[in-house]
TrEMBL record:
It holds the Pfam family DUF1811. It comes from the Bacteria. This is YfhH family protein. InterPro entries: YfhH, YfhH-like.
Length: 110
């Protein structure tokens, strides 16, 4: 029976993140890049469920943890996903609205 991460307890989420890390490491050893990426995405979503969406504010800009120099402006929050626009190294904002798990957002840019 499959559960959604929203149904997991914090302890179960941490166990799941641990399992996904192991899977990613095994996939990396086998050279399976796509499997590594899938595991990493699942880890980020599971990790987002251990965080509070209330810690993030709409219309604020946050650093992106996995992409140095890139930022993200939140338009709105839906569950553990921040919807908004990526800002590149030249401070140009993307035209494409996208959703990111809040676990990918770093410090607020002042």
């Amino acid at each position: 029976m499959k559960f959604r991460y929203s149904d997991y307890s914090i302890e179960q989420l941490h166990q799941e993140i641990g399992k996904l890390k192991e899977q990613a490491q095994k996939a990396e050893q086998l050279g399976n890049v796509s499997e590594v990426q899938i595991c990493e995405r699942k880890m980020q979503v599971a990790l987002a469920y251990t965080m509070s969406p209330d810690d993030f504010e709409k219309e604020e800009i946050y650093q992106l943890k996995m992409e140095t120099g890139y930022k993200f402006r939140i338009s709105y929050i839906n569950g553990v996903f921040a919807w908004g626009y990526r800002i590149d190294l030249l401070d140009e904002e993307s035209e494409n609205l996208e959703a990111l798990p809040i676990s990918l957002l770093g410090k607020k840019v002042s």
